[in-house]
Amino acid sequence: MLLPFKRLALILASVILSACAHTTVGPGFTDEIAVLEPRAFTCCAEPEKFYPEALIRTAFALADDLGSQVAGKMYGGYQEKVFPGLLSGNTAAEAALMAQLQPLDLVFSANKSYLWGTIIPGRFSHDVVYLGTEAQLRAAGLWTLPALAPLHDDIRAGRVFIEAQTPAVGTTTAARVIEADTVAILRPNLTAHARRQAYATLANSVGLAYDYTFDVATTDRLACTELVSLAMPGLRIATRKAYGRDVIFPDEIVAQGIRGERLRLIGYMVATEGGFVWRNTHSLMADIAAYWGIPGSNP
């Protein structure tokens, strides 16, 4: 049994492994979003307004020692059973997602059905990188890249995504990626050289420990957005100062894609009663702004 201090420490540390609740869209909110140009869309301002600074700094201080324990409580059974996302097990949604993807696309997910997903900062709480199928990679002339050789068996087995997830960077399947309520697809604009470098970095990152403090300055441990930034530096993903460290919020990258800055929004899938729909850019903007606020408006 944990001592009272350690029990409290786990609660505190859970804050930084999670984030803030997705707020309710109020009357007239979507009308305000509808007139906002996607190229002017921003998010993630004032990230420190949601939690007391002392609480977060304590959680960060404890993260390295207790992060794995907290993650075990948050994601208990994640490797053995299905997350309770509304799209989980929806083979039609999985097929629709896969049909849209090209190698090195980014897939962002939100799982607000899951208890801890309701307190993850912003609309999206996780992202993965699509490696591509063997056929796609051969067609693109990428299958024979030396960096990809160690991943051939995983790709052939259907583990065609790579992610920084507790406890370490590794590959995963489409069935796991779709265990969410919503997913957004972003396509990076990369040169041929940048694509090769991205694959080399992704492959070399496999096995690196998860970064429970989300500090962009560290590269020996990686969180999900840090992996993308490290593998694709040409995207020039924005960081924000939060509680004394530079971090990258998933919503920040999605907002960049909405603006069309070196990333392009390909699709936004949302679960419905027993199914799913593809929603438009303004719907995605509204869902992100419901958490962070409408860009340019008064708080």
CATH superfamily: endopeptidase domain like (from Nostoc punctiforme)
Order of helices and strands: HHHHEEHHEEHEHEEHEEHEEH
What's the N-to-C terminus distance? Answer: 44 Å
Estimate what percentage of residues fall within beta strands. Answer: 15-25%
Q: What's the CATH C level?
A: Alpha Beta
The overall pLDDT average reads 82
Radius of gyration from CA coordinates:
19 Å
Describe the main β-sheet briefly: 7 strands, antiparallel
How many domains, as an integer?
A: 1
Q: What is the topological layout?
A:
Blueprint: H1 4-16, H2 29-34, H3 53-74, H4 91-100, E1 106-110, E2 126-130, H5 134-139, H6 152-156, E3 161-165, E4 168-172, H7 174-177, E5 182-188, H8 192-205, E6 209-210, E7 221-222, H9 224-231, E8 240-242, E9 245-247, H10 250-259, E10 263-272, E11 275-279, H11 281-292
Task: Explain how this protein is built.
Helix 1 crosses helix 3 (53-74). The chain has one domain: endopeptidase fold (from Nostoc punctiforme), CATH 3.90.1720. Helices cover 37% and strands 17% of the residues. It has helices spanning 4-16, 29-34, 53-74, 91-100, 134-139, 152-156, 174-177, 192-205, 224-231, 250-259, 281-292; strands at residues 106-110, 126-130, 161-165, 168-172, 182-188, 209-210, 221-222, 240-242, 245-247, 263-272, 275-279. The protein starts with a helix and ends in a 7-residue tail after the last helix. The chain is built from 11 helices and 11 strands. The model is unreliable at 1-25 and 76-81 (pLDDT under 50). Strands 4-3-2-1-5-10-11 form a 7-stranded antiparallel sheet, with helices on both faces. A two-stranded parallel sheet has the order 6-7. It has a two-stranded antiparallel sheet with strand order 8-9. With 299 residues, it is of the alpha+beta class.
